[in-house]
């Protein structure tokens, strides 16, 4: 192998190792500086919607908790909704929310949802999302469109 080819290979391996180091360092810095977390509940949040004729709508909301401390707005909303449904999108301003000594924590977010009660009967696995623009965390929720009574639906697990 010529001296020039060997020099090029050495230079390339040095540059690749430096680039890899900076990528790893950037990823580590990002995970170390992110100090907020979307709390996961013990059970999936659910909403029961009584299936109805065309024109009838259902509206309600899901709550969520962001814990920790954040220095920028945290955007939030919902995705994977039933067909034609909409959800509010908003933000949590910079702030903090920590567990109290007894383990309790303040609910600091909610997402309003609404849509037609005549969508197909099904369990729709929707997700609340919260994002700082770099990292997005999700929380599963169920929207159940059923002919059951609200009480029977909510008691079914």
Short account of what is shown:
The chain contains two helices and eleven strands; from the N terminus they run H-E-E-E-E-E-E-E-E-E-E-E-H.
The oligomeric status of these chains comes to single chain
User: Mean pLDDT score, rounded?
Assistant: 83
Query: How helix-rich are the residues, as a percent range?
Result: 10-25%
Shape type:
elongated
DSSP helical segment count: 2
Low-confidence stretches: 1-31
H-E string: HEEEEEEEEEEEH
- Straight-line distance between termini: 69 Å
Indicate the radius of gyration in whole angstroms: 23 Å
Major beta sheet summary: 5 strands, mixed
Number of strands: 11
Strand content: 35-45%
Neighbour order of strands in the largest sheet: 2-11-10-5-7
Which class do the helix and strand fractions yield?
alpha+beta
Q: Would you mind describing this structure in some detail?
A:
The chain is an alpha+beta fold and 157 residues long. It has 2 helices and 11 strands, in the order H-E-E-E-E-E-E-E-E-E-E-E-H. The strands form 3 sheets. It has a 5-stranded mixed beta sheet with strand order 2-11-10-5-7. A 3-stranded antiparallel beta sheet has the order 1-4-8, with no helix packed on it. Strands 3-9-6 form a 3-stranded antiparallel beta sheet, with no helix packed on it. The longest helix is centred in the N-terminal third of the chain and has 31 residues, at 3-33. 18% of the residues are buried.
